[in-house]
Each structure stands twice: as structure tokens, then as C-alpha cells.
Amino acid sequence: MDPTAAKYIGAGIACIGMGGAGVGVGIIFGNYLAAALRNPSAAQGQFGNLIFGFAITEALGIFSLLIALLLLFGL
Amino acid sequence: MQVDPIHQFQIHNWAPLFSLGGHQISFTNSALYMFIIVGLVSLLLIGATSRRAVVPGRLQSIAEMSYEFVADTVRSSAGTEGMKFFPFVFTLFMFVLFANLIGLIPYSFTVTSQLIITVTLALLVFFLVVGYGFWRNGLHFLNLFVPKGVPKLILPAIVAIEVLSFVSRPVSHSVRLFANMLAGHITLQVFAGFVIMLGSAGILGLFGATLPFILVILLTALELLVAFLQAYVFAILTCIYLNDAIHPGH
Fold first, then answer.
1. Which CATH superfamily is domain A3-74 in?
2. Which of A53, B133, B140, B228 is most buried (most C-beta within 10 Å)?
3. Interface contact B232-A51, CB threshold 8 A
4. Each residue's pLDDT tens digit, A12-22
5. What are the domain boundaries of chain B?
6. ipTM
7. Under DSSP, is residue B132 helix (H, G, I), strand (E, B) or coil?
8. B179 vs A contacts (CB less than 8 Å)
9. For residue B79, is it left (φ>0), alpha (ψ between -120 and 50) or beta?
10. What is the pLDDT of residue B3?
């Protein structure tokens, strides 16, 4: 196979990992919303934890994006 | 008519200053925008707090709200002891926020869409955490990698994972901001390109162009949210990392 084509295919495959991060971020915000509707008074205090969990989950998706970017422009 | 979505991230050398170890050091558009950001932040905060009315005006409210917001974040995630790092976190937050917001103005340059800028900021935080952690706790700082109550059998694996996750922090810290800004601006540019391509295709295309045009407006609103959220995420992660340096025990 042409190496350039393999590179582009690999970058595309690497981006699939971001789908998992999307699912994870959706679960985090969905659960936060569900919990916030049950107990609205406690919601504001957990906003920092929400953003922290969001950031940690998003990091894993970003790693796969990083692999894709490395394949496209770096290597 | 073709639109190149990457063109907006190009760095132009405007004035070559001097060369350092074989590298050309120049005054670039990136440097100019950083000067603009620092100037704007200074102007806002100094100008807003110079009169100090008891009932704050509009400008003073902005300054007080951003101060209170960041102070609450630092206090809740790094404790009262973390408040000594408040000036550092506040500076980072305002710089990233203004860089993101200025980047949203059409034809301007987004400083935070350059990986070198975000990596520099993230490494600054990383080395501050490592340095302060060892300075304050000595070798007890290494307790960070040894969680309590883990069975001896799997402890080596846990320590390896903890070290790996600690070392990959500056990577995710910097690439998160960079990738969000880059992807957002490319998306905006691609949809703006649709508007131009359809709009130049005759009267029927003009009707077709309204749909991507509406999308561009909505995406700009989304980017405004992302710009603020990423600045906040950058600040709160800095606080959480600093918290590890202050209280290394799990």
C-alpha cells in the first residue's frame, strides 16, 4: 500500500477513539444533569467536579486526536 | 473559490530581531497578539479598580466577578493554602480567556491555537507543581504515586500507572486547549467557506448559502462558550495539580 494512503487511513482510524470520549463526556453531563434535577441545591457545589471529570475524560479522546495529528503532520 | 482553513494559523515574521544559537528570533503576529492580550487585561483590571466605588460600575463589576470566580475556584479545589497561588492562576486564566476571545474576532489571530504557546504554559504549571511539591514536602511528595490501601501484589502496577498519568498531564493539559481552539476555528472556517462557495454559484446558491451562514452564527456562539470553558478548564486543572503539590497524600 502507498505509505501516504496508509498514513491517512491510520489517522482516520485513530479518530475512532474520540467517539469513546464523546460517549464518556455525554455520560458525565447526563448524570450531572440527572443528579442536579434531583437535588438542585447541591448542584452548584459539584460544578468543579463536573468540569474536572469532563477534562479527564476528554483527555483520552485528545490522545487519539494527537495520534491522528502526529500521523498527518508529524511523522 | 477555494478557502484554505489552515491559513489563519500561519505565523508571519514581521521584524527579525536577533539570532540565538542558530535560531532566528523575530517579532511575529503571535507576539503582537500576546502584547495586545496582556495590554487589554492590564487595562481592564487596572482601569476597573482604579476608582474603587462602593457600588461597582460596569467595568468594576467585570473585574470583581472574574476575581471572585477564580478565587472561589482556587479555594474550593486547592484549599485556603492554595490561595498563595491565586495570582498565578488568575494570570493564566485571564491570559487564556482573552487569547480565546480575541481569536474569535474575524481576521484576528488565535494565540492559543499554537501548540508551542499552550505547551509552554502547561510545562510552566508542571514544573511549578514538581518544584513546589518537592520544596514543600521533600521526598513525601512521592507519596502521590503510592495510593493508600492498595494490596501489595498490585502496588507496582498502580505506581507505574500513577507515574504515567502524572507525566502525561502536561500533554493533555496543553493539547486540550490547543485542539479545542484549532478544531473550532477550522470548523468555523470550513462553514464560512461553504457560504462563499455557494454564494458565488448564482441566485439559487445564494438561497443555499443561508443555511451554512446560520450555522456559522450558531457555531460562533458555541465557540464563545468553548472559549470560556477551556479557559476555566485550564485554570481548574492548574488548581487541582497544585493541590497535589500542597497535599500529596491521597
1. F1F0 ATP synthase subunit C (1.20.20.10)
2. B133
3. yes
4. 999 999 999 99
5. 7-246
6. 0.71
7. helix
8. 62, 65-66, 69
9. left
10. 64
